[in-house]
Design a protein that fits this description.
Elements: H1 7-13, E1 56-57, E2 60-64, E3 66-67, H2 70-76, E4 87-94, E5 99-105, E6 110-119, E7 122-132, H3 138-144, E8 148-150, E9 157-163, E10 171-175, E11 179-184, E12 190-195, E13 204-210, E14 216-223, E15 226-232
Parallel strand pairs: 2-11
Antiparallel strand pairs: 1-2, 3-4, 4-5, 5-6, 6-7, 8-9, 9-12, 10-11, 10-13, 13-14, 14-15
Amino acid sequence: MRRALSAACLTALAAGLLAAGCSGGDKSSEPGPPPPVPAKLADGTTPAPMPDAVRRFRGKKVIQAKEVPGLGGQLSCPPARELADRVIVISSFISTDGLGVGYGVNGANQLYSCDAVFVDGHWRSCATKLLELSALNPQEVTKEAEASVCSDPPPERGFVWAVVPAQNTAWALVDHRSYWDAYFVFNKPVLRISSIEGLDDSSQASIVFVDQRGRVVSDQHLENGKVVSGQASTG
């Protein structure tokens, strides 16, 4: 019988903001042209409309990622066989890049991820990773989590864990240069996000957490495959 992931573990993850510092080195490579704004998600489906308050953000269109029910995510991108009876889906979204499914592991300080790309009408797993933590808290996730990169088929895209700020956060917006992918994260302590930027030292991607009115709660970014904190709102 599969047990529910300990509520104490999940609330521990939601207890604070990401604590890693922000580095700001110069980037030596010139970025290529921004990608076109897609009309569809990675699986070819039409994204649901965003609420008026967050339909656009910082002058760019916002595209809503589709949350997949836990069983659907598990069927499309299953956990390792040895973990099958010990995990519960805690994040499962289809973005413009692919499918990222995040699992909590019962009885352990671990997070498991399965990421997939859509090829020939079905999901194909492109990366799996077991994240070992000394404790389930925001600082440890920030310290240890690193993007899993999928490059076949192109373009290269990465999937990474992000900790959701606890204060009134409704959406996580991930910058894709010409648009934002948006994840509805209300009451979610962690989630699996995707990006085409910030996977190495040639670029970085903003990750902005906002409330239902589009007001910034925390402004972070992804660089060298790691999520690091920027500035949290105090208002």
